[in-house]
């Protein structure tokens, strides 16, 4: 009868509702554990950031003694090389230091710092681009306003010529158009390459030019690092992610 | 003179070589710290996996009391729904339990378990698909050979009809073609959806059908969970990632 069906239906509904409440209560415990795990992992990351920072500073001091280190590493990176125009490459010869500052709670963002020597292109000595990715607010990025010197604005249409046919792996047109672009801070491929690839181990890109990509060092500047690279003759491969670098064996010969 | 130039060049080369060695030594320390950080994070993840497992088991016991829970969650998932053919959807009404086992060192892989009631489609009661992603070896996946009952092989051309025009977010053609596909275990979007999205919190998909997507429950089966869903009337939104679910307030009215 309808009545019996109705009773059974109510009974089933009640059981299902009870089960859903059990699931929800379980889920709350799981969510709390996940939250706890995230916090614990964050603390580990913070701890290691503090341990890494003095090493990065020490590394920067040594890198500073190597002419055109950063531009060479950038140009040798298979993806980053594709966005660098010739003028930008020239400009980045004046890039003397790169820094990355993770904000204290890490999840909330980071700041890239590009330090320049006095150069013909712009007045600034430091260009920064920072990412604010706190999940509670709209993600944003902002960057230093570049004070271009007259006739040297690389973002003007006159200079902003990208390399045709060389694009791959990134949607950005040039280094400085990326620098000024704040449209999608959450998925910024160039920032990711600089932060999570090049910065982690720039030496591998400095030493080993990507096959088929111009290593970007102009011959007329008598670049010392080009000689270095030749001397090392492939002793260090690009596939160094899981290996310990042993530059001693290759450099000191 | 040439001689003086040569001396200066040698001097520079030496300095650069020394700097490169310093950088390399720093880099080794940084790499070691990164390695240490990874290990520590892995230990935290392992610890929380052990804590989560009994909660997942408890959750599975409660989920078992809710008719067609998993098929409803799958069908309500905006991406997963696009690969489910009508026959597969019918077949998944017999899916009673989903499990995920992370291998002990986590990085090395995981195993998905799909438990089925006796059903018209195949003899197996458990279908597993496992991913071996140890970085030292070629990544592989393998899955249970499905013993289809005669005339019910959903991977045969007769049954393998995908929904036209509904595809988005995934390259797989159907659930069982995904299950049998081992071509790219490192970037398996469906495994990722099941493991890192649905399994983490399946209740949100069970409760809230994606707008515009058929919730996939056949009316003639008198589905109880459809009534449940209507009763809750959007009290829990799809945007629950960072919130604590409070089903009590919505279900118990």
UniProtKB/TrEMBL annotation, chains A, B:
- Start-end of Acidic residues biased regions: 216-231
Alphabetical keyword list? Coiled coil
Q: Which family does it belong to?
A: Belongs to the nucleosome assembly protein (NAP) family.
Protein name in the entry: Uncharacterized protein
State the residue spans of region: Disordered.
211-253
InterPro entries, per this entry?
A: NAP-like_sf (IPR037231), NAP_family (IPR002164)
Q: Tell me the SUPFAM superfamilies matching this sequence.
A: NAP-like (SSF143113)
An annotated GO BP: nucleosome assembly
Which Pfam families does this UniProt record tie to the protein?
NAP
* Family annotation (Gene3D superfamilies): 1.20.5.1500, Nucleosome assembly protein
Could you list the residue ranges forming a coiled coil in this record? 9-43
Q: Lineage of the native species?
A: Eukaryota, Metazoa, Ecdysozoa, Arthropoda, Hexapoda
One GO cellular component, as annotated: nucleus
Supply the source organism for this entry: Oryctes borbonicus
PANTHER family given in the database record: TESTIS-SPECIFIC Y-ENCODED PROTEIN
